[in-house]
Write a structure and sequence with these properties.
The chain has one helix spanning 9-67. With 68 residues, the protein is mainly alpha-helical. The longest helix has 59 residues, at 9-67. The chain is rod-shaped, with a radius of gyration of 30 Å.
Length: 68
């Protein structure tokens, strides 16, 4: 049986399409990872700031109670 050359471009096109799609998908995943990392850093910073504010309020209240 002779193989037909007309069938060759189809798998090549599928492979190229898959490679392009896979590359795009990896770029998307990397971008999402960077966004989540930034969001995590921002939320961690906000938690730290909120914790410092809470400690400041508590220490100010304790100081006010000591002088009352």
């Amino acid at each position: 049986m002779a193989s037909s050359r007309s069938c060759l471009p189809v798998p090549v096109a599928i492979t190229k399409s898959y490679a392009e799609c896979h590359s795009w998908f990896l770029e998307l995943i990397e971008a999402m990872a960077q966004i989540f990392k930034l969001l995590w850093q921002l939320s961690s910073q906000q938690v730290k700031c909120a914790g410092l504010r809470t400690l400041t309020v508590i220490s100010l209240r304790q100081r006010n109670w000591a002088f009352a």
